[in-house]
Amino acid sequence: MNHFVVVVECIIEYEEKFLLIKRPQGVHAGGLLAFPGGKIEAQDGAHHADVLVGAVKREVLEEVGLELIDPIQYATSNYFVDSRNEPVVDVVFYTRLSKTKAVVKASEREVPEYYWMTADEISAHDNAPVWVKRYLSAAIELR
User: Fold this and answer.
1) Helix (H) or strand (E) holding 114
2) What region, left, alpha or beta, does residue 22 occupy, with left being phi > 0 and alpha being psi -120 to 50 degrees?
3) Domains of the chain (ranges plus CATH)?
4) DSSP sequence for 39-70
5) Are the C-beta atoms of 51 and 45 separated by less than 8 Å?
6) Which sign does the torsion angle of CA 114, 120, 121, 124 carry?
7) Where does residue 94 fall: left (phi above 0), alpha (psi -120 to 50 degrees), or beta otherwise?
8) Which residues pair with 22 in a beta bridge?
9) SS3 label, residue 125
10) Structure confidence by residue, pLDDT tens digits, 11-31
């Protein structure tokens, strides 16, 4: 039986810019740009809530301090094998902030740097991997 690690990411848009984090060194894709997110945890499905959306809200709060209250939509998903040779299913969501306060309080432990960038800036950035650009395209189609 195959087992997968399930992770979620959230593309957060505010005033036509998107929130990206720099992944810390020593983790999968360290030093590259990514959207806030992380692994699903047992607590994310408490009270029969949507486990994926619960994980997105928890991870965004933990990493960048935003308590998401705007609608969260499924954008896309991906499969890859990470740097520890573990198979990963990555489920990507999108939200546009209108009710949520766009005040980032990044976790010092998990987020060494964060940026609000336009789609064009992300496309041109050397540390934006191809999958980040692909995920962003999927989110832009949801607008």
Assistant:
1) strand 113-117
2) beta
3) 5-142 (3.90.79.10)
4) E--GGGGGGG--HHHHHHHHHHHHHH-----S
5) yes
6) positive
7) beta
8) 33, 113
9) coil
10) 999 999 999 999 877 777 778
Confidence of residue 43 (pLDDT cuts 50, 70, 90): confident
Distance in angstroms (rounded) separating the CA atoms of residues 109 and 113: 11
Q: Helices in 1-143 by DSSP H: which ranges?
A: 51-64, 119-124, 130-142
Average pLDDT over residues 33-40: 96
pLDDT category of residue 48 using cuts at 50, 70 and 90: low
pLDDT one-digit tens code per residue, 73-89: 999 999 999 888 999 99
